[in-house]
# Entry
Amino acid sequence: DNSIDIWRGVAVIFMVASHVTWFFALPETPIWHNLRLIGDAICFVTFLLTFGIAQYFSLFSKENSPELIKKSFNRSFKLIFAYYLAAFFSLIPNYAAGSLSVELILQTLLFINVPGFVEFLVPFIIFSFAFTLIKKFNLFDQIFKNKHYLILLTVIGLIVFLIGQVVFFAISGVNMNESLRNLLSLISGHSEVYLRYPMLQYA
# Structure
Protein backbone atom coordinates (compact mmCIF):
# COMPACT_ATOMS: atom_id res chain seq x y z
CA ASP A 1 0.00 0.00 0.00
CA ASN A 2 1.61 3.26 -1.17
CA SER A 3 -1.05 5.60 0.23
CA ILE A 4 1.39 7.01 2.81
CA ASP A 5 3.85 7.88 0.04
CA ILE A 6 1.05 9.59 -1.89
CA TRP A 7 0.21 11.78 1.09
CA ARG A 8 3.88 12.57 1.56
CA GLY A 9 3.95 13.70 -2.07
CA VAL A 10 0.94 15.95 -1.42
CA ALA A 11 2.78 17.43 1.56
CA VAL A 12 5.84 18.12 -0.61
CA ILE A 13 3.65 19.94 -3.15
CA PHE A 14 2.21 22.16 -0.42
CA MET A 15 5.69 22.74 0.98
CA VAL A 16 7.02 23.90 -2.40
CA ALA A 17 3.98 26.11 -2.99
CA SER A 18 4.15 27.73 0.46
CA HIS A 19 7.88 28.49 0.12
CA VAL A 20 7.68 30.02 -3.34
CA THR A 21 6.83 33.39 -1.78
CA TRP A 22 10.02 33.17 0.31
CA PHE A 23 12.45 32.04 -2.35
CA PHE A 24 11.19 34.38 -5.08
CA ALA A 25 10.56 37.32 -2.75
CA LEU A 26 6.97 37.81 -3.89
CA PRO A 27 5.26 40.92 -2.49
CA GLU A 28 4.03 40.53 1.09
CA THR A 29 0.31 40.97 0.53
CA PRO A 30 -2.50 39.57 2.71
CA ILE A 31 -3.28 36.98 0.02
CA TRP A 32 0.29 35.67 -0.24
CA HIS A 33 0.72 35.80 3.54
CA ASN A 34 -2.43 33.78 4.22
CA LEU A 35 -1.67 31.30 1.44
CA ARG A 36 1.78 30.74 2.92
CA LEU A 37 0.38 30.17 6.40
CA ILE A 38 -2.26 27.75 5.11
CA GLY A 39 0.30 25.92 2.98
CA ASP A 40 2.73 25.63 5.91
CA ALA A 41 0.01 24.30 8.21
CA ILE A 42 -1.31 21.74 5.70
CA CYS A 43 2.22 20.65 4.82
CA PHE A 44 3.30 20.16 8.43
CA VAL A 45 0.10 18.41 9.53
CA THR A 46 0.26 16.04 6.55
CA PHE A 47 3.89 15.17 7.25
CA LEU A 48 3.06 14.69 10.93
CA LEU A 49 0.07 12.47 10.11
CA THR A 50 2.07 10.23 7.79
CA PHE A 51 4.88 10.17 10.37
CA GLY A 52 2.44 8.97 13.04
CA ILE A 53 0.99 6.29 10.77
CA ALA A 54 4.48 5.08 9.85
CA GLN A 55 5.42 4.98 13.55
CA TYR A 56 2.39 2.81 14.30
CA PHE A 57 3.21 0.23 11.62
CA SER A 58 6.97 0.23 12.22
CA LEU A 59 6.87 0.42 16.02
CA PHE A 60 3.60 0.06 17.89
CA SER A 61 2.14 -2.77 15.80
CA LYS A 62 5.16 -4.99 16.51
CA GLU A 63 6.30 -6.97 19.52
CA ASN A 64 8.66 -5.12 21.83
CA SER A 65 12.28 -6.19 21.45
CA PRO A 66 15.76 -4.68 21.94
CA GLU A 67 16.33 -4.78 18.17
CA LEU A 68 13.10 -2.85 17.49
CA ILE A 69 13.96 -0.19 20.07
CA LYS A 70 17.50 0.13 18.74
CA LYS A 71 16.23 0.58 15.19
CA SER A 72 13.76 3.24 16.35
CA PHE A 73 16.45 5.11 18.29
CA ASN A 74 18.66 5.02 15.18
CA ARG A 75 15.90 6.72 13.17
CA SER A 76 15.64 9.39 15.86
CA PHE A 77 19.38 10.07 15.77
CA LYS A 78 19.23 10.35 11.99
CA LEU A 79 16.68 13.15 12.41
CA ILE A 80 19.03 14.92 14.82
CA PHE A 81 21.86 14.54 12.31
CA ALA A 82 19.66 16.07 9.59
CA TYR A 83 18.85 19.01 11.85
CA TYR A 84 22.48 19.65 12.80
CA LEU A 85 23.60 19.32 9.19
CA ALA A 86 21.06 21.94 8.12
CA ALA A 87 22.03 24.08 11.12
CA PHE A 88 25.68 23.94 10.07
CA PHE A 89 24.90 25.37 6.65
CA SER A 90 22.60 28.00 8.18
CA LEU A 91 25.52 29.34 10.24
CA ILE A 92 27.79 29.86 7.22
CA PRO A 93 26.40 33.38 6.53
CA ASN A 94 27.11 34.30 10.17
CA TYR A 95 30.67 33.06 9.77
CA ALA A 96 31.12 35.02 6.54
CA ALA A 97 29.78 38.16 8.21
CA GLY A 98 32.02 37.69 11.25
CA SER A 99 29.03 37.37 13.60
CA LEU A 100 29.46 33.70 14.48
CA SER A 101 29.94 33.19 18.21
CA VAL A 102 30.16 30.31 20.68
CA GLU A 103 26.87 31.46 22.18
CA LEU A 104 25.11 31.29 18.80
CA ILE A 105 26.51 27.81 18.14
CA LEU A 106 25.37 26.55 21.57
CA GLN A 107 21.92 28.08 21.11
CA THR A 108 21.60 26.32 17.75
CA LEU A 109 22.74 22.98 19.18
CA LEU A 110 20.27 23.29 22.08
CA PHE A 111 17.31 24.25 19.83
CA ILE A 112 17.16 27.77 21.27
CA ASN A 113 18.14 29.38 17.98
CA VAL A 114 16.37 27.21 15.38
CA PRO A 115 17.41 27.92 11.76
CA GLY A 116 14.73 28.89 9.29
CA PHE A 117 13.19 26.23 7.04
CA VAL A 118 14.21 23.37 9.39
CA GLU A 119 12.14 24.37 12.42
CA PHE A 120 9.67 21.61 11.53
CA LEU A 121 12.34 18.97 12.28
CA VAL A 122 12.40 19.73 16.02
CA PRO A 123 8.93 18.30 16.81
CA PHE A 124 9.71 15.21 14.71
CA ILE A 125 12.92 14.66 16.68
CA ILE A 126 11.15 14.94 20.04
CA PHE A 127 8.12 12.89 18.96
CA SER A 128 10.41 10.20 17.56
CA PHE A 129 12.31 9.84 20.84
CA ALA A 130 9.04 10.02 22.82
CA PHE A 131 7.41 7.26 20.76
CA THR A 132 10.49 5.07 21.18
CA LEU A 133 10.46 5.50 24.96
CA ILE A 134 6.70 4.89 25.09
CA LYS A 135 7.21 1.63 23.22
CA LYS A 136 10.29 0.65 25.24
CA PHE A 137 8.42 0.95 28.55
CA ASN A 138 5.06 -0.28 27.18
CA LEU A 139 3.32 2.91 28.33
CA PHE A 140 0.46 2.67 25.82
CA ASP A 141 -0.14 -1.07 26.04
CA GLN A 142 -3.31 -0.77 28.11
CA ILE A 143 -4.71 1.88 25.78
CA PHE A 144 -4.10 -0.17 22.63
CA LYS A 145 -5.70 -3.23 24.29
CA ASN A 146 -8.92 -1.28 24.82
CA LYS A 147 -11.36 -1.67 21.93
CA HIS A 148 -12.09 2.05 22.14
CA TYR A 149 -8.43 3.03 21.92
CA LEU A 150 -9.02 5.46 19.04
CA ILE A 151 -11.51 7.40 21.16
CA LEU A 152 -9.12 7.36 24.12
CA LEU A 153 -6.23 8.63 22.00
CA THR A 154 -8.46 11.35 20.54
CA VAL A 155 -9.50 12.49 24.03
CA ILE A 156 -5.86 12.49 25.18
CA GLY A 157 -4.89 14.51 22.10
CA LEU A 158 -7.61 17.09 22.77
CA ILE A 159 -6.55 17.43 26.40
CA VAL A 160 -2.91 17.93 25.39
CA PHE A 161 -3.99 20.50 22.79
CA LEU A 162 -6.01 22.44 25.37
CA ILE A 163 -3.08 22.39 27.79
CA GLY A 164 -0.90 23.80 25.03
CA GLN A 165 -3.39 26.60 24.36
CA VAL A 166 -3.65 27.46 28.05
CA VAL A 167 0.14 27.64 28.35
CA PHE A 168 0.34 29.68 25.13
CA PHE A 169 -2.03 32.37 26.40
CA ALA A 170 -0.45 32.27 29.86
CA ILE A 171 3.11 32.98 28.67
CA SER A 172 2.41 35.21 25.66
CA GLY A 173 3.03 38.81 26.56
CA VAL A 174 4.93 37.87 29.72
CA ASN A 175 8.37 39.46 30.01
CA MET A 176 10.94 36.66 30.14
CA ASN A 177 14.44 35.68 29.08
CA GLU A 178 14.69 35.33 25.28
CA SER A 179 16.25 31.85 25.44
CA LEU A 180 13.50 30.62 27.78
CA ARG A 181 10.87 32.16 25.54
CA ASN A 182 12.29 30.40 22.47
CA LEU A 183 12.35 27.03 24.25
CA LEU A 184 8.79 27.45 25.51
CA SER A 185 7.69 28.35 21.99
CA LEU A 186 8.72 24.85 20.89
CA ILE A 187 6.43 23.36 23.54
CA SER A 188 3.33 25.55 23.42
CA GLY A 189 4.06 28.37 20.99
CA HIS A 190 4.54 32.05 21.79
CA SER A 191 2.94 35.13 20.26
CA GLU A 192 6.34 36.79 19.78
CA VAL A 193 8.11 33.82 18.19
CA TYR A 194 7.35 32.99 14.56
CA LEU A 195 8.24 29.82 12.65
CA ARG A 196 7.58 27.34 15.44
CA TYR A 197 5.43 24.22 15.48
CA PRO A 198 4.48 23.77 19.17
CA MET A 199 4.46 20.14 20.23
CA LEU A 200 1.49 20.25 22.57
CA GLN A 201 -0.88 21.69 19.97
CA TYR A 202 0.27 19.28 17.27
CA ALA A 203 0.47 16.19 19.51
